[in-house]
């Protein structure tokens, strides 16, 4: 009922905002249109792959993908992607060939049920169809293909025309993010006598997947190839905080256990987990290095003080570890401490019992002595 009421309020107060947040939003850019061969010959069949993104707040269903040649009149093919989750992608593919040697423009239009933003539903990309002599064939691979931020890596590859290596070909290596925006400065090199090239680059600072394109030119012919670079970082989070005593009394010694997880895609160095009572730090505990996806537990001891407390555990409190996010490093859990002597609580019960036992023995002894005196 509370959720329904909130939705009604959102729709009444800010219908535009609510609709946007609760609707799918499928989008494509020119960089999302990829050809299996960027420079095909006339009548050569290629595959067109389109990556569709859902940047909305709801799964996109029955996503229609229409393909046009030059003019957006009648599509030469149409595909349907059944479902694209929130922040996910889907791929639609079709075959195509150019009948004559010239430049064509491939237009792609997408749509889905309840999409409220149509401004990003179309993209176009040109493709040049050449004569049967064919383009340069470029092959590129990354070493390594997975890096940490600002780590050096190499783009290695070859350039050939059909089966013949192309020496002295100019190769430009460009790095682009998912949106197709160039990251850093392109690196230019030339092929050796065997048609091979190697370019040294530095990984971007932000974590994510990047497209590394090697574009070659020689003798008026061109060609390109792409590879994916993945930049990874650790992401330290506190998933759980538990207490050895969930109902402590004032003075009790309480063990506070925090579960530290590396939620990122790269290994984390050793770090510190800080424990706080409100804003007051009461313990620093060292944690061992963690590989991606793994967890460990760290324990601190806290002396209970009467009242309501906000007990917090924070990973890497001094920001010494380079992470994909520093905003999710802490977790806070409330704990209520009652009055009345803690470790003390059990001790006082024991002491009270002992005193009662001594008193009882004393009374019995007095009675025995009195009876003996009377008997005498």
Description:
This protein is mainly β. The chain folds into four domains: 20-131, Immunoglobulins (Immunoglobulin-like, Sandwich); 135-231, Immunoglobulin-like, CATH 2.60.40; 236-337, Immunoglobulin-like (Sandwich), CATH 2.60.40; 344-376. 14% of the residues lie in helices and 47% in strands. It has a five-stranded mixed beta sheet with strand order 10-17-16-13-14, with no helix packed on it. Strands 1, 2, 3 and 6 form a four-stranded antiparallel beta sheet that branches. Helix 1 crosses helix 2 (15-21). The longest helix has 32 residues, at 344-375. The radius of gyration is 34 Å and the shape is elongated.
Question: What labels describe this entry?
Answer:
3 helices, Immunoglobulin-like, mainly beta, 4 domains, elongated, 376 residues, four-stranded antiparallel β-sheet, 24 strands, five-stranded mixed β-sheet
């Amino acid at each position: 009922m509370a959720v329904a009421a909130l939705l009604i309020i959102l729709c009444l107060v800010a219908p535009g905002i609510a609709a946007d947040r609760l609707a799918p939003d499928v989008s494509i850019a020119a960089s999302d249109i990829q050809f299996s061969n960027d420079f095909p010959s006339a009548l050569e069949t290629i595959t067109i792959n389109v990556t569709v993104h859902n940047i909305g707040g709801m799964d996109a269903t029955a996503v229609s993908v229409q393909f046009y040649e030059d003019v957006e009149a009648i599509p030469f093919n149409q595909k349907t992607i059944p479902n694209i989750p929130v922040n996910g992608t889907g791929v639609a593919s079709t075959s195509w060939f150019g009948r004559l040697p010239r430049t064509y423009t491939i237009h792609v239009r997408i749509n889905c049920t309840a999409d409220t933003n149509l401004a990003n539903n179309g993209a176009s990309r040109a493709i040049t169809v050449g004569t049967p002599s064919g383009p340069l064939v470029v092959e590129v691979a990354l070493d390594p293909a997975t890096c940490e931020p600002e780590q050096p890596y190499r783009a290695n590859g070859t350039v050939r025309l059909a089966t013949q290596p192309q020496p002295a070909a100019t190769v430009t290596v460009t790095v682009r993010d998912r949106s197709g925006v160039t990251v850093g400065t392109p690196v230019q090199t030339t092929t050796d006598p065997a048609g091979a090239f190697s370019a040294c680059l530095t990984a971007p600072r932000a974590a994510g997947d990047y497209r590394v394109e090697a574009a070659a030119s020689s003798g008026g012919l061109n060609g390109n190839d792409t590879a994916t670079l993945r930049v990874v970082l650790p992401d330290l989070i506190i998933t759980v905080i538990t207490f050895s005593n969930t109902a402590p009394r004032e003075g009790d010694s309480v063990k506070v256990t925090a579960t530290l997880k590396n939620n990122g895609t790269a290994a984390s160095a050793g770090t510190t987990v800080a424990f706080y009572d409100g804003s007051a730090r009461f313990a620093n505990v060292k944690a061992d290095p963690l590989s991606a996806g793994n967890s460990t537990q760290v324990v601190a001891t806290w002396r209970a003080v009467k009242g309501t407390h906000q007990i917090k555990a924070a990973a890497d409190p001094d920001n010494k570890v380079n992470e994909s996010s520093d905003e999710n490093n802490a977790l806070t859990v409330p704990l209520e401490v009652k009055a009345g002597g803690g470790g003390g609580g059990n001790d006082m019960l024991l002491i009270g019992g002992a005193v009662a036992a001594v008193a009882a023995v004393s009374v019995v002894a007095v009675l025995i002595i009195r009876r003996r005196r009377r008997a005498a």
